[in-house]
Design a protein that fits this description.
Methylamine Dehydrogenase, Chain H; 6-stranded antiparallel beta sheet; 5-stranded antiparallel beta sheet
Length: 417
């Protein structure tokens, strides 16, 4: 479950076509050198990031344990998955790092290229823009050259399927949200994306693609979308759409129900919250919870404060969703956020300034949610200029936490205490 959120300098209307990350790539290190690099960086202080040793800290009634971070290589379009980390390459290929349940098992590079490839060849793997969205159906979804595309990817072998073009009206630079839904005797993938405006006066709208049924409008007539998120609910999926406008930022939500065949059945398009005017590029993230999906958006709460908002959408979207805040000591650009259900509750990972001073180092924190309220946080990394963050639950109840910062791509195992 992927999420990337960016927020920064003021613009009247968000422009998802702008690149959201620096050029990036991946290379594998021999296991001995990889361990040496991780140990060296863990003691490097504020220059390359400060992790400390494997960490453990309580959060409410639960505790998380963090293994030592692993340096996967140069900064890339990386997303955490239940099996490891997946990179989208410049040539629209997929490269994975299969991660083991034990911290003693080094990552195994699977996909294009050879183990131990040199840095020069790996620069060809650099990809611009957001990472792919990866589903339990083992498909990666992203936008390239105006097309919504997907590839199947098997972490066990590194085998990737052919590039499938699902829609030809997608907005370059925009994220895709995707999930696998159980529909009786079969599973079907769902992806939502931002479509290009056909005319300058038109809205950028969200659309939905359903396996076996093609694409259809998701935004209701007269409304737009700048960012989309998707989360499972008790009986359906819930789509969340953020519509950045010059004076306000409406947040829409609607349910998505699937049968074994045919198109999706969409619930009413409900405005669950109206946020402030946007501060640059903001994106919405969503994750499941026992009370229904929760959405997260970094916003300027007012003219003098900035923080992360939590919107309790619930299983049935409704007006005036409950909003709670985790305030930051200062603004941050970008402001990456990711969320997932792990270790028995919903957790959110977010980068924030460590202090109010403009030059303060940044911190990557993990915090649990209870009915939309933020719990005590645990520091996962600090001293980076965080570009992106991704969090994916594993089948054993823990998760993989991935981030890109200071020109490198990192992953850290999160275990239940």
């Amino acid at each position: 479950m992927l999420a990337l959120v960016f927020s920064g300098c003021s613009r009247s209307r968000d422009d998802p076509s702008r690149a959201t990350s620096k050029e990036s790539g991946v290379r594998s290190l021999p296991s001995a050198l990889r361990a040496q690099r991780a140990d060296a960086v863990a003691t490097a202080g504020q220059v390359n990031g400060d992790f400390g040793p494997a960490a453990s800290a309580p959060a409410g009634k639960l505790a998380l344990k963090l293994d030592k971070p692993i340096d996967l290589g140069p900064a890339g379009a990386a997303v955490a998955t239940p099996m490891g980390v997946l990179f989208r390459t410049r040539t629209d290929d997929l490269l994975g790092f299969l991660l083991g349940a034990s911290p003693s098992i080094p990552p195994k590079r699977v996909g294009p290229g050879e183990e131990g490839a040199d840095a020069a060849s790996d620069e060809a793997l650099v990809a611009r823009g957001p990472s792919a969205a990866f589903t339990r159906g083992s498909y990666a979804y992203w936008v390239t050259r105006g097309n919504l595309v997907r590839r199947a990817f098997a972490f066990s072998t590194g085998a990737a399927g052919p590039l499938e073009v699902l829609a030809t009206d997608a907005l370059d630079g925009a994220r895709v949200a995707a999930e696998t839904a159980a529909t009786g005797s079969r599973r079907r993938d769902v992806a939502i994306y931002i479509a290009r405006a056909q005319k300058q006066s038109d809205e950028r709208a969200a659309r939905i693609w359903v396996e076996g049924a093609g694409t259809a409008p998701l935004s209701s007539e007269g409304s737009g979308a700048s960012s989309v998120a998707l989360a499972p609910s008790h009986t359906a999926l819930v789509a969340v759409m953020l519509d950045l406008r010059s004076a306000m930022s409406p947040v829409h939500a609607r349910t998505i129900e699937l049968g074994e065949n045919g198109p999706a059945r969409l619930g009413p398009d409900v405005v669950v919250y109206v946020g402030p005017s946007p501060e640059g590029r903001s994106e919405v993230v969503a994750a499941p919870s026992s009370e229904g999906p929760i959405a997260f958006i970094p916003f300027a709460q007012n003219t003098s404060s900035f923080g992360l908002s939590s919107l309790l959408i619930g299983g049935e979207p409704h007006l005036d969703a409950k909003v709670q805040w985790r305030m930051y000591p200062n603004g941050i650009d970008p402001a990456p956020v990711a969320a997932a259900a792990l270790c028995g509750r919903t957790w959110v990972a977010y980068a924030r300034p460590s202090a109010a001073a403009p030059a303060s180092p940044h911190v990557l924190a993990l915090a649990p949610l209870e009915k939309g309220a933020f719990g005590p946080e645990l520091t996962a990394a600090q001293g980076f200029e965080f570009v992106s963050v991704s969090l994916a639950a594993r089948d054993d109840g823990g998760a993989w936490l991935t981030w890109v910062g200071n020109g490198r791509s990192w992953v850290r195992a999160v275990r239940c205490g």
